[in-house]
Each structure stands twice: as C-alpha cells, then as structure tokens.
Write a structure and sequence with these properties.
Elements: E1 3-4, H1 6-12, H2 16-26, H3 29-33, E2 36-40, E3 49-57, E4 77-84, E5 86-95, H4 96-101, H5 109-131, H6 144-148, E6 154-155, E7 161-162, H7 166-184, E8 193-196, H8 198-208, E9 214-218, E10 224-228, E11 231-235, E12 258-261, E13 268-273, E14 280-282, E15 292-305, E16 311-314, E17 317-318
Parallel strand pairs: 2-13, 6-16, 7-17, 8-11
Antiparallel strand pairs: 1-2, 3-4, 5-15, 8-12, 9-10, 10-11, 12-16, 13-15, 14-15
Helix pairs in contact: 1-2
Length: 325
C-alpha cells in the first residue's frame, strides 16, 4: 500500500500547474487531511475495484493459570467490502478570444474557470464522503452515513438537546460536550475530523466561548482551522452548484448530525488508481484549430471504512428553531 496525502503529492510534483491544482483541493480541510491509497489496478481491463476486510468484531483477552489453557478462544471478525472507484469532475467551454484577451475583470479566464470547477469537484467529494450511496446513484461512491447507519457508533441521545439559540447553548453546552465524548469513546481512536453543517458550526463556535478545549489555527494556505482537542471541525458547506447544505438541518425538528472519522489506512481513507497521486486537469491547446476550447477537472476515487469503529455519528442535536406553524 502506498499511503499519501495531497501535501505529500505536492512535494513529489515538479509541475507548477499540478501544485496549484493540489493546493486548490487542499483548501478543503477534509481533502487536506485525507489519506489516500493509490493501489487500485483495473480488473479485467476496465473495472477499478477495491476489495478490503472491514473489522466488525474485536477479539477478547484474558489471564490463565500455569498448566491451563485459555478458556475463551475467539477471533476478530471481518466483513468483506467491495468498492468501485468513481469518476467525477466537470468541464467548461471558453472562447479562445476570452482566454487570450479578457483581462479587464478577471486576470486569467482559464485559471478562474479551472479554479471554480475545482471548487465544485471538492464540494462533490465532500458530499459523497457524507451522503454517497451507490445503490441510489451508481455514479457515487458510498459515504459515511451509509457505513455508520445502524452500527454501534450511530449514537442518538434519549432526548433532543437544544442548541438552537444563545440562551440554549449557555444552558446546555456542557451536556453537548458530554455527548461528543460519549461518541468519541465508542471509536477505536481519536477522530481526525468532525464534519458539520453551518448551523452546527455556528453553535460550536459559541460553545468555544465557554470551553477552553477549542483552538483556532491557520493552515499554510491561509485557511482557518478550528479544533476540539486534536480533532479538526469542518463545516462541509453546500452541495456543488446548489444552495443546500451537504449535511442537512431537519425542517421537522431542527436537528443536524455530527460525523466523526479517524483517517488512516486502518480507518477511513480514500483509494485512487495505481500510481495516481493527484486530481487531473485537462487544458486546451490554443495552437490547434477550434474557436471554443474545453477544459476539464477530474478525480477517480472511492472511500473505504476499514473498521466500523473508525467512524461515528452524533444525532439529535437541535441547531435551528422549528416553525410552529
């Protein structure tokens, strides 16, 4: 297995364009922290399939007396999981006149359109990371919600916790942190990431006014990172090209989930084709005929959850008021 991050891929690249593309993808804290495994080779010439064993049951251990055998003999249990890598990205068309001469408003139309397309691809990866379900959308890889739902790390308090106003947060923030710790203890290690929507992120920022366990730093790209202990809190933002959040706030009860993931080759990680360590861009050749030029941004990837305890979700936290009417 060849483990790498996008920062590792940048260090291996000698191309300024490739490094620019990588930096644009790294503006997502999820993709910046994500561990990739570039090991998938086509099976039968056309299928990019990754097969792995997901640990579902852990073995026990015990003491024994001299001249006696261990009383309990058990083994770790795994479930074989197969994921198919998915191709996703986008294309844009530009007239060569705009590429060569439009510099009054936007310095470089080609770079601008490419960066905007990368932003959309980032959002799509983030969306599938949470909501992906290949059963309902064959073009998508499976996401965290599908992997976690109904497992031991799918945690819902017995009653909804109200965090939908400043007054409610002041009253309930300690209980909120208690529930977060209840979820963290179900996992097999400290989560790398807490994924939330904008409503939850705003509530957490207010909780940080009361608790000293939150810190804010900046990455080498200038993005602000908020952490709870060692765990990065990421507002996942909107779905690509839409004004709807990747992680929804329920209109029925105002609740929104928090997703936790421990990133690593033995936990949650992404997989890519053999030898591919960066998303691809395809730029037009302006020396060839054709007035309208096409550019493309593309990724080939999927997600693996190697252990059920490497991902979790906390539900039942109310972050928005509900319309009584």
């Amino acid at each position: 297995m060849a483990q790498f991050t996008l920062d590792d891929a940048k260090k291996l690249s000698q191309s300024k364009l490739t490094n620019h593309v990588i930096d644009e993808f790294r503006k997502s804290p999820l993709m910046d922290a994500m561990v990739f495994d570039d090991c998938v080779k086509p099976q039968g010439g056309d299928s990019l399939t990754y097969v792995y064993n997901r640990v579902s049951t852990w073995p026990t251990a015990e003491g024994r007396d001299i001249n006696t055998e261990y009383q309990t003999k058990d083994v770790a249990k795994t479930d074989q999981v197969t994921v198919n890598l998915k191709i996703f990205g986008g294309a844009f068309d530009l007239d060569r006149v705009l590429i060569n001469h439009e510099k009054q408003v936007i310095t470089n139309q080609l770079t601008f359109q490419m960066d905007q397309k990368i932003k959309a691809v980032r959002a799509l990866f983030n969306d599938w990371f949470i909501n992906g379900d290949s059963a309902s959308n064959t073009k998508s890889f499976d996401g965290l919600d599908k992997a976690i739902k109904g497992t031991a790390t799918d945690y819902t308090p017995s009653a909804i916790l109200d965090m939908s106003s400043a007054e409610a947060i002041e009253q309930n923030w300690k209980t909120f942190l208690y529930y977060i710790r209840q979820v963290r203890k179900l996992m097999d290690g400290a989560p790398t990431l807490m994924a939330v929507n904008d409503d939850m992120f705003a509530a957490i920022q207010t909780v940080a006014d009361y608790s000293a366990q939150f810190t804010a730093t900046k990455t080498d790209l200038g993005s602000e990172i908020v952490k709870y202990g060692t765990t990065t809190i990421m507002a996942m933002g909107d779905k690509p090209g839409k004004a709807s959040q990747i992680i929804e706030t329920s209109e029925a009860d105002g609740t929104s989930p928090i997703y936790f993931a421990r990133l690593g080759l033995d936990g949650v990680h992404a997989v890519t084709p053999d030898g591919q360590k960066a998303p691809k861009t395809y730029l037009p050749n302006l020396s060839l005929p054709g007035a309208v030029k096409t550019g493309e941004v593309e990724m080939i990837a999927a997600m693996a959850v190697k252990a059920t305890k490497s991902a979790a979700v906390l539900r039942g936290i109310k972050v928005a008021p509900v319309d009584a009417g």
